[in-house]
TrEMBL record:
InterPro entries from the UniProt entry: ABC_transp_permease, LivM-like
Species whose genome carries this gene: Malonomonas rubra DSM 5091
Keywords, ordered alphabetically: Cell membrane, Membrane, Transmembrane, Transmembrane helix
Cellular localization per UniProt: Cell membrane
Molecular functions per Gene Ontology: branched-chain amino acid transmembrane transporter activity
Stated name of the protein: Amino acid/amide ABC transporter membrane protein 2, HAAT family
C-alpha cells in the first residue's frame, strides 16, 4: 500500500472523527474572527436548538416515530432550572441535572401509554401534550409568572468565573452541543442505533429480528427528552428570562421542521436544519413577519421534492451524478 493509499484509508476510516475535529477547531476560532455579540448570540441559539434537534432526530429519524411536543420538554428544562435556582437557591449545574432526571421520569410516564400509538395518532397525542404544558405556563402565574414570563435566572459559573458574555457562552454552549453530537454519532453506529434504524425501516421486521420495539421507542423518547431538557436549562441560564411563547406549538413545529429539512436520520443534518431555521428570520425581514408561513412552505417543498431531507437529498443527488459521470468515463 502506497503512502497516498494509506492516507486515503486513514481518512476513510476516521472520517467522522476528522469532521468533528474540524468543526471543533472552527468553533474554537470563530470568536477570534467574529466578535460581534449579536452574531455570537445567534450562533449560541443555533447550538441550543441543535441539542434539541439531535435528540428529536433520534426519535423521528432513527426510531421512525413522530413528536410535535418536544417544545414541552424544552420548556420543562428551562422553567425547571429557573424555578429551582431562583425560588429554591439550587446551584444551577445541580439544577440542570435534577431537572433532566425529572424530565426523563415525566417522559417515561407519558411515553409508556402514548407510544402505543403511531402515525398521526401519536403526532396528535404529543401535540396535545405540548398544548397542555403551554396552557399551564400561561395560567399558573404564581409559579411560572404567566404570560409575563420568569426573570432573574442566574448565569452559569465555575467558581468565580461566570458565563455571562457572548464569547464565554459560545464556548460553553457549543461544548454541550458537540458532546451531544458525539454521543448521537456513537449511538447510531452502535448496536442500539442499528436496532433503531431497523425499527424505523419496518417495525414488524425489527421485532422479528429480536428488537424489543416498544422498549426501544420508550427509551429513545426519554433520551430525546433529556437532550431537550439540558438545552432548555442552557436557554434559561443564557438569557436569564423565559416566557411561554418560546415553548408553544409553533416552537414544537419548528423543531420538527429543523429535523425534516436537515434530513431524518442525518445527525449532521440536524445541525444544518437548526442553523437554517434559526437564521432565516435574520436574513430577511419578510421571514420574520411571516415566519410560520415560510417555515410551512419550506417544509412542504422539502417533503415534495426531497423527502429524505434537504442535506441528505442534496448529498444523494451529488452521489448519483458522480456515479453517472464515472460510469460515462468508464464507458468512454
Amino acid at each position: 500500500m502506497t503512502g497516498k493509499q494509506k492516507i486515503l484509508y486513514f481518512i476513510t476510516l476516521h472520517r467522522t472523527g476528522l469532521w468533528v475535529t474540524a468543526l471543533s477547531l472552527l468553533l474554537l476560532l470563530f470568536p477570534l474572527v467574529e466578535d460581534n455579540p449579536y452574531t455570537l448570540g445567534i450562533t449560541n441559539l443555533i447550538a441550543i436548538y441543535s441539542i434539541v434537534v439531535l435528540g428529536l432526530n433520534l426519535f423521528i429519524g432513527y426510531a421512525g416515530q413522530i413528536s410535535l411536543g418536544h417544545a414541552a420538554f424544552f420548556g420543562l428544562g428551562a422553567y425547571g432550572s429557573a424555578i429551582a435556582t431562583v425560588n429554591f437557591s439550587v446551584n444551577p449545574w445541580l439544577a440542570m441535572v435534577i431537572v433532566a432526571v425529572l424530565v426523563a421520569l415525566v417522559a417515561l410516564l407519558i411515553g409508556i401509554p402514548i407510544l402505543r400509538l403511531s402515525g398521526h395518532y401519536l403526532a396528535m397525542a404529543t401535540l396535545g401534550m405540548n398544548f397542555v404544558f403551554h396552557t399551564i405556563l400561561l395560567q399558573w402565574d404564581e409559579v411560572t409568572g404567566g404570560p409575563s414570563g420568569f426573570s432573574g435566572i442566574p448565569s452559569l459559573s465555575i467558581g468565580e468565573y461566570e458565563f455571562w458574555d457572548e464569547v464565554s457562552l459560545h464556548y460553553l454552549i457549543w461544548t454541550f452541543a458537540m458532546l451531544a453530537l458525539l454521543f448521537s454519532l456513537n449511538l447510531v453506529r452502535s448496536g442500539v442505533g442499528r436496532g433503531l434504524a431497523a425499527l424505523a425501516g419496518d417495525e414488524t421486521a425489527a421485532a422479528a429480528l429480536g428488537v424489543n420495539t416498544r422498549n426501544a421507542k420508550v427509551k429513545v423518547f426519554v433520551l430525546s427528552a433529556i437532550f431537550a431538557s439540558f438545552a432548555g436549562s442552557l436557554f434559561a441560564h443564557t438569557y436569564s428570562f423565559v416566557s411561554p411563547d418560546s415553548f408553544d406549538i409553533f416552537a414544537a413545529t419548528d423543531m420538527v421542521i429543523m429535523v425534516v429539512i436537515g434530513g431524518m436520520g442525518s445527525i449532521w443534518g440536524s445541525l444544518f436544519g437548526a442553523a437554517l431555521i434559526t437564521l432565516l428570520p435574520e436574513w430577511m425581514d419578510l421571514f420574520e413577519t411571516y415566519k410560520d408561513f415560510v417555515h410551512g412552505g419550506i417544509l412542504v417543498l422539502v417533503l415534495m421534492f426531497l423527502p429524505q431531507g434537504l442535506v441528505t437529498g442534496l448529498i444523494d443527488i451529488g452521489k448519483t451524478k458522480l456515479a453517472l459521470r464515472r460510469q460515462k468515463d468508464a464507458e468512454a
